[in-house]
Specification:
Layout: E1 4-9, H1 15-26, E2 29-31, H2 33-43, H3 47-54, H4 76-98, E3 101-104, H5 108-111, E4 118-123, H6 126-136, H7 145-167, E5 179-182, H8 188-202
Parallel strand pairs: 1-3, 1-4, 2-3, 4-5
Helix pairs in contact: 1-8, 2-3, 2-4, 6-7
């Protein structure tokens, strides 16, 4: 059985960098945006749309009818959300079957539970997340600290809602992870070097 390491992470915690450096140190495959790209290819949907759907909990709209009957209407948005999630499950299982790998996000810890992955959750306090976001400046925007805090909190709420919708488990609950890592005021390169030695010792 291949060694599978899954990384769940708070936005701004450095979890993506942690996963990438860990895969480099262990010399194994790394999957993150590649999952979105493969789903887009298989579903013929744009990567941007797939990314957007994967970042939000599906919302079903129920029509209101006056009278005695109530008939469920087809919801194309819900259908596409379910299609994307099915492809996500299929792709993750294929990736896990190929070789040892590190997988970031995508409910991989839950989807691949039969493969007994080593499940890591990466988190940090808000000032550290704000500082990391400022350094990365993904959006190329000049936001105040309060605005950035609100954006970080909103992204994490969406991640939690998406995860909890599909897994029925609480995102970030330590009981569902093998290792929880606080990256507050931490050098991620040094931390991943130490964690890598832990895995190397198990080889």
């Amino acid at each position: 059985m291949n060694r599978i390491i899954t990384i769940s992470r708070e936005f701004g915690s450095g979890g993506r960098e942690f996963g990438r450096r860990l895969s480099e140190n262990l010399g194994c495959a790394y999957y993150d945006q590649e999952i979105v790209q493969e789903i887009a290819k298989r579903t013929e949907l744009s990567e941007r749309y797939v990314q957007q759907v994967m970042g939000h909990r599906p919302i079903t709209s129920f029509p209101i009818h006056i009278g005695r009957s109530f008939r469920m209407m087809a919801d194309p948005n819900m259908d596409q959300s379910q299609t994307i999630f099915r492809e996500q499950c299929s792709i993750l299982r294929e990736m896990a079957a190929k070789s040892d790998c590190v997988i970031v996000g995508r409910c991989a810890d839950y989807i691949l539970w039969e493969e007994k992955p080593f499940r890591i959750f990466v988190y940090a306090d808000m000032p550290s997340k704000v500082e990391r976001c400022r350094v990365k400046n993904y959006e190329k925007e000049d936001l105040t600290d309060k605005e950035l805090e609100r954006r970080i909190a909103a992204v994490n709420r969406r991640r939690a809602d998406y995860y909890e919708y599909y897994t029925g488990q609480k995102w970030g609950d330590r009981i569902h992870y093998d290792l929880c890592i606080n990256t507050t005021q931490t050098n991620i390169k040094q931390m991943t070097a130490a964690i890598s030695r832990l895995f190397m010792g198990q080889a």
